[in-house]
């Protein structure tokens, strides 16, 4: 198995189709067209064997506001998945560890939203967000309680010292977080 790093604009049509198949297999009905769109616009890590994509994780830049501090561009992790036939073999860990190297070279912190995989990310150094979350919509700032659990990866804790403050993202089609 090889683990490769590619920017979104280098991903060809065949790989896009293979990724959508992987996400549909791993997430089932939970994965929407908007979720697929959210995965693009940044950097991807692919775990490949022969012509198959067995694992994926990507990170895209997003503007986030922590408390009342100025908006900060962070890495936002999307579409993390391992082929269901190959889970619990370490593929997800290898994929995320490589993505986290890319994150460290690009952004001071990263965020993600997860419903079921909190323990997986905690093993990789992620921390649970403890504060309230909001979305900056056209109508103003609205509370957002739809996502599962927000998590943060901090290279330097002073970049975001307080995990119990409020956190706000910009709205987008589909799930805001
Ligand atoms: C979450 C997911 C990517 C993990 O991939 P994986 O290749 O099976 O993970 P790994 O084998 O590398 O596991 C790494 C470690 O995390 C643990 N782990 C894996 N999945 C876990 C989960 N859902 N919850 C808690 N711990 C988990 C493993 O036990 C392993 O621990 P160990 O190193 O102590 O043995 C995979 O289960 C998946 O695709 N799930 C469906 C899609 C999904 O929910 N993605 C996350 C959305 S945010």
TrEMBL record:
Sequence ranges assigned to domain N-acetyltransferase in this UniProt record: 1-156
InterPro entries per the UniProt record, alphabetical: Acyl_CoA_acyltransferase, GNAT_dom
Name of this protein: Aminoglycoside N-acetyltransferase AAC(2')-Id
Species the sequence originates in: Nocardioides koreensis
Gene giving rise to this polypeptide: aac(2')-Id
